[in-house]
Amino acid sequence: MRVVYRGLAVAVAVVAVAVTLVVAVLPSGPDEVAAGPVTAPPAAPSSSGPAPSPEAGEPVQAAKASPTPGASLPPGYTAMEALYADPRVPKLTPKVKKIEPRPPARRVLKDRRTGLAVPRLGLPWKAHNPAPFTTKQVLPRQRGTSLRGILVSCPLPIMEQKSPRDTALLAARWTLNHHPQGSRITWLAAQPVKRGWMLIYRVKYGKHSSRAAVVVMDGGMRKPGLAFVTVPDTQRKHWSDVGRMAAGVRVLG
């Protein structure tokens, strides 16, 4: 009998080891899967009916939903999609007028990093410590406000797009970082320029506004150059300098 009991004990031990191995190999539950890349949420089905089912054996791909203005964007959206979803920046339509031709600036600041020559505006504008830009001109500070006119140039601080127009639009959106919180853009003038694009616009914030312009231009460097000017309405007598800057940027030659 001892031999029989000993044999039964060995058999039970072997079965227990086998069960343990099976449990260790199999996943602990049907919902546990390997983590994969995060994708944009699928688009909602159209009102005409449910989305068609994929054929057997075909991979299922998540469709990218159209951005909603003002909504936060999940990973995977392009810079232009983010622009179109930004309620602060309206669509640029063909109705936006062009800037009037102006004579070239007589005095310029040479920005060697961008390969651009930026108009050197007369008094009361004066050169200023450019950091973090490469050139900078400013109007005098006024009592009771921290806002004043500035004109700067630097290598393009955003990702260049295939179209100079799109690059300029993104650059204008970027300049809202240098305006009061809650600022919104209204387009005033837009047109292509030699080796780039130019935009003039109004930036509205509360009861006040600024007039601003960006010029994106290829100066032959690794990145295009950006010239940006903004003048608040408390210094509106210098708003004409905005157009003078926009029309006067050129490639160093």
From TrEMBL:
It comes from the Bacteria. Residues 36-72 are annotated as: Disordered. Residues 45-60 have a biased composition (Low complexity). This is Fibronectin attachment protein.
